[in-house]
Design brief:
This protein is mostly helical and about 1400 residues long. The chain is about 70% helix and about 0% strand. It contains 66 helices and no strands.
Length: about 1400
């Protein structure tokens, strides 16, 4: 109605003026091309012509236009195009249907008028053909009233009356003659034209039915299908209508009998196949006549899939009824019913098409069928055809050997068959699509599968690989699924891997994923194998043990040849749950094929990906530890490609996930024999300072043997994919990244202490993996190769943001190699034939300078210029470039290992039961002894050269500065940039740092204070201890233990002190600016040094007490670790040991339930400490004890005396007269004898007092005991008279700030503190100090003047010596200089610029 309304508004209202002309113009626009229909536009859409004519006629019927006007316009437009009358008549038919409902209406009469008026210029034939009979009679076109009756009779005769055949009219002689003619002996010269003429003559002569003749021709064709050339031409020319042929064939198919004993497809199917191949009939014509229906076939396929899915589902159901019903029975694929196959005419036709080599028709038919996989008979037929197609190419390109001819395959006989392949490009036309269509059914013909694999492998070796992508498709769709259906064919598995290994691991792993996850979950046959394999592997894994590895391993190997991925998924799942299966499973893998091992590598990576997220908050989840251990053992034992797993670890590091470094750590440890064990014994640590042979024999827990092949494979995997340096840099970056990365995934509900614990372990893991990998690369690479792969040192520091410890750790072997190469070059270029020690030292010094000079130049701009005012770049590079091997020869380790080998050689010689094997072992031990002795000799020569070089260079290491604080800044720089970063890097580096400080001292290095360096190391270690991870704390403890060992060696032996320290620059206490020569009294004396050692022990005790009282997990753990490490040299004082023991007992009591790991650490340390208590020293034995009040009185007398002296004798006893010195010697002897008597009396009395005090302490509260310990620590601390009260308050406040920042949520005591309580405690301490001060003054007044005069001189000398430090009192100087700082000196970064943030210290 919308178009009608628009027509009225556009044309009818102005019809007489312009509407008629406008309408004709619009109709004319539709008719542009007379050769095309005006109904459609160029784009194929309707033009609107019919709608316009309809609107015109409708307006005439409604009375909007005059009838004559409508007729005249229709007469005009009918002349414009030949198709207009037909279009007009179509519109009239529509209006006829609309107006026929009411024959008496006005519209019906107007419609009849239009038809009568249109009849003159429309064809009468068209009107009778299109319009209904009733309409024609209404209009008047049909005037005979009997026409309708006659029409009904004719229609009934044509469509409803059955034709009666007169059998007597069709003489049987004609059919007999036809059968004789068609079944006679036909030679090759017989032509179809002559037979066709005979057939036509017989039809005409005997009046035969043509359709029945066609049926007889097809029957004759069925009897002799080999005469296809004759019959195809005959049928094609006899019956031109393919629809008739299809109907006759359909009638025959509906009556075809199904038998069980068919060996080939029925001849009727062969005839149909030939007719389809020669395009006599089309597939669309014959397909509806084939049975069963597609819907039935689809239902059968769904039913099969659901049955297998139900079986797989029942496998995971655990029954409690007993072993009889503990799972479904194994699915055994039933043999297909032959009658069921032969009843499926579509599948039989597929086979017939393949028998006649009709490939295109087969592919078109099979693509329509709803089947899960290709049946056996069509699959074998297709394989036979492919044999013939690929035969020429296979014989040319893939013959195994010239003399092995093989069984030739005859070519296809049909001219319409696919062409044979003569090149790799020809494979794309037929063979590749056929293989894809064949799919898993390829397993029915293993020989064809071998041929295809060899052809694809040969194509892979050709430049450009014309079948690269096609080969991957064939592997995915046909070869790998077919391998699953081949039960236990290990040879085929190896052959498949020869093709797969030519592709990258990315392609292989993608194929394995589709093989396992897509094909194995969609194809019922593969699903069935998966279920059976899963049931068998469950049975096997329940029985795997160390005792039956061989039989169970064979079962696993046999089962893995076909379906390895399904098996390994379950095995890895069991390993993650039961880690004791790792050993037996790894041993049983020796029966696996190469393909199975490669699939195992993929399954391991997949398990690492899918296992993520379990055990939240753990640094090393149990499943990851189990998989890492299995990976290390499996990759070492078996030749599995490592590239995929290593790339996975690298990708995880790029994603800032460092947990998977545990895998790399296990792999390097197992395959290369390089351990990351931090808990080494002292003997092992000493052995690590030797050569490579000593390290291998005595440095590691497990001797490095049988790792040559696995180490080479690991090197090839790491270097071949450029992962060596990348993994090192990523590990180094992740070591700091994991510290700052927020825990947001699974750690939302965990405390900050547990997060710190996890982060610390992750950082240690990154450190261990980095050290392992760096050590492996340096030992496995040739020096030149390693230097070429490593980025330059400045680039590592600047571009990769790697710290100096890591950069120099990686470059240290390169620098040593460069120096050795230059030394060798200088030796060869020298003219002298004799080689002396001095010349070798000179050569080494020159070579070192030339090799290190570029490093020094490149390092200088990376740090601020202010740094180089305190230490020189040469010293910085020297410190970082050397190792323990360069400083000390582990003589004891060499001798101990030589003795062990001699004993083993002697026992091997005595053992005569082994025969020649014992002699070989003895020879091996003797060879090792010779090698070790030669290695020791070479190291001794090297160490002597290094010592000579260092003695020459040490003068310029520390620049001299006018300010007295220069020594402090020098030590600060040394600790920040050198000692602390390296002492926590590895255990060997911790020993190196201690040895290097001793070496610098032993070289009498100018402007370096050993005493000040040790003082800074021991005085406040709280901040450095609390900032360490667990591994760093252990290494830091080893460093302190070695330094303490040196300090206590000097403390215990006066002779050693005088020999190694007395006149060394490191023990100078007064530095002169104008005079470079020091005098004797500028050095620290032995007794003063013992006093300083006592202060160091006190400082260490106080730092440990602070950490143990903090309540923070990290501080307590690190303090316990450090205490365990330094136990050989601390504590040695009984009183300090009691204080520490009480703190340890407190930790044990508080952490027994809450944090058991701390309880275990504390218990272990407590037991070791109790064993050492009987050997503790008294304070009087440790150093000369001076009563506090006597020391104060003496100090006052000394101050009065000092006021009368010259200004140049303020702080030093340098200018004392010779007479005073002589008197002091005699007085010293006398006083020493008296002091010994007094000390004995005091020790006896003190023992009684101590026993009484212990009895009293049992009745007192722990709070009183704590106050008493604090009073003792204050009593042995530096005198409070030399400190300002505000300094103590500031120091306490800052200490509380540091402790509160490190405690986290775990410390309840610190959480309960408030400013008001702290103020009250501070006020109480101040009152106690005042009372003690008043009591000391009262005691001094009451002291007899005789006793004071007797001891005054000795005390005065002691006080003067203690005051002779470079900046006054040593304790006061240390307190004023360092304890007022807000930060630890190890963490002070204020002097660094922003661009140097990559340096952690």
């Amino acid at each position: 109605m919308n178009t009608s309304t628009k027509f009225i508004s556009d044309y009818c209202k102005t019809w007489e003026k312009s509407g008629k002309d406008l309408f004709v113009k619009v109709i004319t626009q539709y008719i542009k091309d007379e050769g095309k229909s005006p109904l459609f536009t160029k784009s194929g859409k309707l033009s609107g012509l019919s709608q316009s004519i309809y609107d015109l006629l409708l307006c005439g019927l409604k009375g909007h236009l005059k009838k004559d006007a409508v007729v005249s316009v229709l007469r005009d437009i009918s002349m414009l195009h030949a198709d207009i009358p037909s279009i007009l008549l179509d519109v009239v038919c529509v209006l006829d249907a609309e107006t026929s409902l009411d024959t008496q209406s006005e519209e019906r009469s107007i419609f009849c008028y239009f038809v009568r008026e249109l009849e003159p210029f429309l064809s009468d034939k068209l009107l009778k053909e299109r319009l209904e009979i009733d309409t024609l009679q209404d209009v008047g076109t049909l005037k005979n009233k009997n026409f309708y009756t006659k029409f009904i009779k004719i229609k009934t005769k044509l469509y409803y009356k059955q034709r009666k055949f007169n059998l007597f009219r069709e003489e049987s002689e004609g059919y007999a003659k036809l059968i004789v003619e068609l079944n006679q002996e036909i030679s090759e010269n017989t032509e179809w034209k002559s037979i066709l003429e005979i057939i036509q003559s017989l039809i005409g002569c005997f009046n035969l039915d043509p359709n029945r003749v066609l049926d007889i021709i097809l029957e004759s064709f069925e009897a002799r299908p080999h005469l296809d050339k004759l019959f195809i031409s005959l049928i094609k020319n006899y019956m031109c209508d393919p629809q008739v042929i299809s109907e006759v064939i359909g009638f025959k198919l509906s009556n075809m009998e199904v038998l069980d004993n068919y060996k080939e497809p029925p001849h009727l199917m062969t005839v149909i196949a030939l007719l389809l191949q020669h395009q006599v009939i089309s597939l669309d014509d014959v397909y509806p006549w084939l049975r069963p229906d597609d819907i039935i076939m689809a239902k059968e396929a769904d039913k099969e899939t659901k049955l297998v899915q139900d079986f797989l589902r029942k496998l995971n159901i655990v029954s409690t009824k007993g072993p009889q019903t503990n799972g479904p029975a194994e699915v055994i694929e039933e043999k297909a019913d032959p009658q069921e196959y032969w009843a499926n005419q579509k599948l039989v036709l597929c086979e017939a098409l393949l028998r006649v080599c009709a490939w295109r028709e087969f592919s078109a038919l099979f693509s329509r069928l709803h089947v899960t996989s290709m049946p056996v008979r069509p699959a074998k037929a297709l394989c036979d055809m492919l044999h013939a197609v690929i035969e020429p190419l296979y014989r040319i390109q893939c013959r195994v050997a010239p003399k092995i001819i093989g069984k030739p395959v005859s070519p296809l006989k049909s001219k319409l068959a696919p062409k044979s392949c003569k090149s790799f490009e020809d494979m794309k036309e037929t063979v590749i699509p056929a293989l894809i269509l064949l799919g898993p059914a390829l397993h029915h013909d293993p020989i064809l599968m071998y041929k295809i694999i060899r052809i694809l492998r040969t194509s892979r070796s050709v430049d450009g690989d014309p079948l690269e992508h096609e080969a991957l498709t064939v592997l995915d769709a046909a070869i790998l699924p077919s391998l699953t259906l081949m039960e236990g064919n290990c040879c085929m598995s190896e052959e498949v891997y020869t093709l797969l290994k030519l592709y990258s691991y990315q392609c292989r792993y993608c194929l394995y994923a589709r093989w396992k996850n897509e094909s194995g979950e969609k194809i019922p046959a593969l699903m069935r194998v998966r279920g059976n394999s899963l049931q068998r592997i469950k049975h096997i894994m329940k029985r795997v043990s160390k005792e039956n590895i061989k039989p169970q391993g064979r079962l696993i190997g046999k089962l893995s040849h076909a379906a390895p991925a399904f098996l390994f998924d379950y095995m890895l799942l069991q390993i993650q749950t039961y880690d004791n299966l790792i050993g037996p499973v790894v041993e049983s893998l020796k029966y696996l094929t190469s393909l199975s091992l490669d699939v195992l590598g993929y399954c391991l990576v997949e398990a690492l990906c899918t296992g993520r997220g379990s055990a939240p908050g753990a640094a090393h989840p149990p499943w990851l530890q189990a998989l890492a251990a299995f990976a290390g053992a499996a990759f070492k034992k078996h030749n599995i490609e490592l590239t995929g797993l290593l790339q996975f670890v690298a990708n995880r590091l790029k994603a800032q996930q460092s947990q998977d470094l545990l895998i790399l750590k296990e792999i390097v440890q197992k395959m290369a024999g390089i351990e990351a064990a931090e808990e080494m014994t002292p003997e092992q640590l000493d052995a690590m300072a030797g050569g490579e042979l000593l390290k291998g024999e005595a440095g590691y827990f497990s001797q490095v043997r049988n790792t040559r092949r696995s180490s080479a494979r690991l090197k090839e995997a790491v270097v071949g994919n450029n992962l060596d340096i990348a993994l090192c840099i990523l590990s180094a970056q992740q070591r700091h990244c994991c510290v700052w990365k927020e825990v947001t995934d699974d750690g939302g509900n965990e405390t900050s202490g547990s997060q710190l614990k996890v982060v610390g372990r992750l950082a240690d893991q990154c450190q261990d993996a980095l050290v392992q990998l760096g050590t492996f690369l340096a030992s496995s690479h040739a020096p030149d190769e390693y230097a070429a792969r490593l980025p330059p040192l400045p680039e590592l520091l600047r571009d990769y943001h790697v710290d100096a410890d890591v950069a120099f750790f990686l470059h240290r072997p390169v620098l040593a190699q460069k120096i050795a190469a230059k030394v060798e070059f200088l030796r060869k270029s020298s003219d002298s034939k004799s080689d002396s020690q001095e010349k070798s030292v000179v050569r080494y010094s020159i070579a070192s300078k030339e090799a290190l000079e570029p490093i020094v130049t490149s390092i200088t701009p990376l740090l601020p210029a202010k740094v180089w005012e305190d230490i020189s770049p040469e010293f910085y590079v020297t410190f970082w470039s050397l190792s323990m091997y360069d400083l000390r020869v582990p003589v004891e380790s060499y001798e101990r290992e030589v003795e062990r080998l001699k004993t083993a050689a002697a026992s091997a010689a005595k053992d005569t039961s082994q025969g020649t094997k014992g002699k070989k072992e003895q020879e091996r031990f003797n060879t090792l002894i010779d090698k070790l002795q030669d290695e020791r000799r070479r190291q001794e020569e090297h160490v002597s050269r290094v010592q000579a070089r260092l003695s020459r260079e040490c003068a310029g290491w520390f620049p001299a500065r006018a300010a007295k604080s220069a020594k402090n800044e020098t030590v600060t720089r040394l600790m920040q940039l050198c000692l602390f970063p390296r002492c926590v890097f590895t255990a060997a580096d911790a020993l190196y740092c201690a040895q290097f400080v001793h070496t610098v001292h032993a070289l009498k290095t100018p402007n370096f204070s050993t005493l000040l360096c040790y003082d800074r190391l021991f005085c406040d270690i709280t901040y450095s201890v609390m900032s360490c991870t667990e591994g760093e704390a252990a290494r830091y403890g080893q460093f302190l233990c070695r330094v303490l060992g040196t300090a206590m060696r000097w403390h215990a032996d006066r002779a050693a002190f005088h020999a190694e320290c007395a006149h060394y620059p490191g023990f100078v206490t007064k530095y002169r600016v104008s005079n470079q020569f020091t005098e004797a009294n500028d050095h620290v004396g032995y007794e003063n040094y013992r006093h300083v050692c006592h202060k160091w022990h006190y400082k260490i005790t106080k730092a440990m007490v602070v950490c143990l009282d903090s309540g923070d997990y990290v501080q307590i753990r690190n303090a316990l670790i450090v205490l365990i490490k330094i136990l050989p040299h601390f504590p040695v004082l009984a009183k300090l040991a009691q204080i520490i023991e009480r703190k340890i007992e407190k930790v044990k009591e508080e952490e027994k339930i809450q944090r058991p790991d701390l309880y275990v650490l504390a218990t272990g340390y407590s037991g070791q400490l109790r064993n050492k208590i009987p050997n503790m020293m008294k304070e009087s034995d440790f150093h000369q004890v001076v009563d506090q009040h006597k020391a104060n009185a003496t100090a006052q007398a000394a101050n009065v005396k000092e006021e009368t002296k010259q200004s140049d004798t303020v702080a030093s006893p340098v200018q004392t007269s010779d007479s005073d010195k002589k008197e002091s010697k005699s007085d010293r002897r006398r006083d020493e004898s008296e002091r010994e008597k007094d000390s004995k009396r005091e020790s006896r009395s003190s023992l009684k007092e101590r026993n009484k005090e212990e009895l009293r302490s049992k009745d007192k509260s722990p709070r009183d005991r704590t106050h008493r310990e604090e009073r003792y620590l204050e009593a042995i601390s530096p005198p409070h008279e030399h400190r300002h009260p505000s300094d103590d308050l500031d120091r306490d406040v800052k200490r509380r700030k540091v402790e509160s920042s490190g405690n986290g949520k775990g410390n309840k005591e610190l959480d309960d503190r408030s400013p008001e309580k702290e103020k009250r405690k501070t006020k109480l301490r101040g009152d106690e100090r005042k009372e003690r001060k008043i009591s000391r003054k009262r005691d001094r007044v009451e002291e007899t003047p005789i006793l004071e005069q007797k001891r005054r001189r000795d005390d005065q000398k002691a006080v003067i010596k203690m005051a002779g430090h470079q900046n006054g009192s040593q304790e006061d100087h240390h307190y004023e200089k360092y304890h007022k700082r807000e930060k630890s000196p190890f963490r002070d970064r204020s002097h660094e610029e922003l661009r140097d943030k990559q340096y952690p210290f």
